[in-house]
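Researcher: I'd like a structural prediction for the single chain below. Treat it as a standalone chain; there are no partners to consider.
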Amino acid sequence: MPIVVKVKINGSGQTTHYNAGDLMLAVGDHVIVETEEGNNYGIVSSIYANIPAEDINPNMPRIVRCAEAGDAEVQVSIIEECREALQISRELVLEHGLDMDLSEVSITPCGNKMKFYFTAEKRVDFRGLVKDLAARFQRRIELRQIGVRDETGMIGGMGVCGRELCCSSFLNDFRPVSIKMAKTQNVSINPSKISGACGRLLCCLGYEQEAYEDARTRVPNIGAFVQSELGVGRVENIDLIKETVTVKLVVDGSVERHTYSAEDVELLKAHDERIVQYRKQVQATESGEQRRLSVTARRGDGWEDKLDTARREAAERRNLQPVGGDRAEPRRRRMTQGRAEASGERRAGRSRRSRTSRPRGGQPRNRN
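Model: Treating it as a single chain, here is the predicted structure.
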């Protein structure tokens, strides 16, 4: 039975499926494969065995043979030449003042063409750079703009999971990943937690999205009201993998939280009368607990007695003011008497300002 393997072509960072035929290969083996530009050097990244022959594309490229010692030596020299070319090309980019970042260089199997991969936020006019590169390396030059995901796949590295990056090992098709996927899976919306080495959202968020969406149809949302074996409650937390819910209940006058399987609870509609009764029970229970906690705290340090004493002292200071000696006259009585005197003076045609006809100096005022 034919064996299908996925091979990573050196220099391009891309992985492609190949028909290995009857070759016995293992992950990490070095092979020579067919490409559109000729035979190329690659490394086996994945193996798919026991595939029926009718399911294999007859036009799938084949693995020519396993790499030999001479092929490995040639590949090492090509890698060194590509590294040197990358350094020289980066210096030329600085000389031309181009806003681009060169990521990788590869040489075609025939050796007459060099490919330069770069990233840039905007379109770049690199015609002058191509002329200088062609004059420097005496080869045909191709500049290809790639995205940050492709760049990370070429460079390689380790992911936050501790394994080799998906884009550098087996992933070729970069499907769209949105923040909605992280919310659906109850993942913490923290950029450092959900971003990969490329700075974009983790590609693995899309691997199980369909399974989470399917579980969502069977598990109530957070905040929904459900009927459980202990009564009506409100969902406070959900676990989509286990398909369980944590419900807030009122049991024997106290608030409790219990975990149930999604199959063991019944989702209530918004206009259900049981929801209104549940809210009243929760409000009464929480209010009673707050009052008990308040009374307990007051009894513990004599806070209630101190508050009453302070209130009495403040009332006494507000209503009483010393007049002279040991006598005291209520403040309200003095204010009432003052208003009565002012009213009598207004009826008599006088005011407080005109009660005296003498100026401050004590001399009679000349009215002429």
